[in-house]
Amino acid sequence: MQNSSITTTELWISKLREELDGEVITPDDDSYDEARAVYYGIDRKPDVIVRPTDSNEVAYVVSVARDTGTELAVRSGGHSIAGYGSSDGGIVLDLSAMKGVHVDTKQRTVWAHAGLTASELTRALGEHGLAVGFGDNGSVGIGGITLGGGVGFLSRNHGLTIDSLLAAELVTADGKVLRVDAENHPDLFWAIRGGGGNFGVATRFQFGLHEVDEIVGGMLILPATTDTIAGFVELAAGAPDELSTIANVMKAPPMPFLPEELHGQVILFGLLVYSGDPETGESVVAPFRELATPLLDKIEPGRYSGIYEEEEEGPPPGVFAVRNFFVDAIDHAAAETIVEQVNASTASMAVTQIRVLGGAISRVPDDATAYAHRRQPIMLNIASMFQQPDEAAAHQAWVSGLATALGDKGTAYVNFIGDEGNERVRQAYPGHTWDRLREVKHRYDPTNLFRVNQNIPPASPEGGL
Ligand SMILES: Cc1cc2nc3c(=O)[nH]c(=O)nc-3n(C[C@H](O)[C@H](O)[C@H](O)COP(=O)(O)OP(=O)(O)OC[C@H]3O[C@@H](n4cnc5c(N)ncnc54)[C@H](O)[C@@H]3O)c2cc1C
After folding, report:
1. Which of 27, 54, 115, 426 is deepest in the core (most CB within 10 A)?
2. How far is residue 143's CA from residue 225's CA, in Å, rounded to a whole number?
3. Residue of 240, 251, 308, 297 lying closest to 274 (CA atoms)
4. pLDDT classification of 463: cutoffs 50, 70, 90
5. Are the C-beta atoms of residues 130 and 147 closer than 8 Å to each other?
């Protein structure tokens, strides 16, 4: 029995090799360990990693997974916090060989293949003085970040990444290659703007582009006090929409550009990007510099296309406990709690990340896309990194305790949750959004072929869970 199933697997893998131009990598190949690696070092061993070269090859891989009943993990940049860009014993459909970029400078649009990273596409668009916003990390794949929403340094000015999405090419569970936009399959177009990879493999995205070239931005490190933290949040919320910020309250890591005596001290590690007129930008960032004498001030004029590091290092090896949620405010009392708790943490890295939202994000109606937390003013990410898996309960308790103290009411942004169970996925989709997503899922993927993700189960025909 076991032999015949091994033979069957070998058979369809050899058929994949015959049919596809793209790479087909199995445990026997020297490149296997490199090819299976994902960002957080999550250790999964797929039977095969396939790197298709176009949407027809993607459709072929999807049909093989469907017809053989094999688990299918879809990977763009491999940054899923839960490791959903990989699989144990299944197929990894790795889009990293698909990196085409076709810019239409007249229409200010781009068709971009889903194997690109945020920095690759940002640099390519920068050659034309144009941009679409992604997140704070350049090696994140445009596939995952776009399908989940996309919160970054252009969000208050130009909305989430999905707010610039005009169309997508999507390979659905039945192997069809669909154009999905406001006129074609509008239900799917609604669902893929926030609903993640549940509805098919996005092979290409068409984005509307923004004229963003010269910016004022960079890193601003301040001592972390109740005044600097609450003051930073107040300034960020009151700033013009052209300014997007991230404030990380954390113990200073041993970064070479920080004086040694600061290592281990709690700091406010701010990141700011002003994407309007640079001269105005200088006056908008000035009050942040006045919150306290900066420990480091790297805010300067530059080009938006240069915001990502050339070579980003992956995270150091370790285990994470995380919690993402939205809050209305970070006042002095909340700031005090954050400083106390970050100080008290015994983890090798403990952080509370504060992202002030609003602006263009909140001008889109809640029901226009599957990302429906539009009116939430502040997003928090609490994370703790540690070395020993048996310490997980203690660090998760630290994360949960701080989240509760800061007013966590069970909300979530899908791209920042780990493998935290179905209830957490549901919290990403408030109100009617969840039911609507389940109906679309039932229409396009009734057998839940695309399930290695923050999963939205298909609605059952009877209407129950
Ligand atoms: C260091 C770091 C910084 C981050 N910063 C930000 C940030 O600033 N803003 C923000 O919004 N998010 C941020 N994120 C979260 C990030 O957006 C998500 O982890 C995202 O899902 C990663 O996308 P990926 O393609 O790299 O990952 P993958 O692991 O390849 O994919 C993630 C999920 O999306 C699915 N998927 C990916 N591509 C496709 C596709 N083409 N078709 C169908 N399904 C697909 C996968 O199956 C998987 O379920 C960050 C993550 C990390 C690790």
Report:
1. 115
2. 38
3. 240
4. low
5. no
Note the pLDDT tens digit of each residue in 328-342: 999 999 999 999 999
**pLDDT (tens digit per residue) in 395-405:** 999 999 999 99
* End-to-end Cα separation, the chain, in angstroms: 35
Q: What is the atom index within ligand 1 of the atom nearest the CA of 137?
A: 3
Residue of minimum CA distance from atom 17 in ligand 1: 145
Distance 294 CA to ligand 1 centre (A): 33
Is residue 6 over pLDDT 70?
no
Q: pLDDT at position 85, please?
A: 96
Tokens of 342: 């970050």
With beta carbons less than 8 A apart as the criterion, state whether 436 and 377 touch: no
User: Is the predicted pLDDT of residue 228 greater than 70, yes or no?
Assistant: yes
> What domains, with CATH codes, occur in the chain?
2-97 (3.30.43.10), 101-211 (3.30.465.10), 214-422 (3.40.462.20)
Residue 5: predicted pLDDT: 53
Find residue 207's DSSP bridge partners: 110, 165
What is the pTM (predicted TM-score) of this model? 0.97
Quick check: 16 and 48 in contact, CB under 8 A? yes
Q: What is the mean pLDDT of the chain?
A: 95
Atom of ligand 1 minimally distant from the CA of 80: 29
- Nearest-CA residue for ligand 1 atom 44 is 197
What are the pocket residues of ligand 1 if the criterion is a CB atom closer than 6 Å to any ligand atom? 39, 74-81, 84-85, 95, 114, 135-137, 140-141, 143-145, 147-152, 196-197, 201-202, 415-416, 452-453
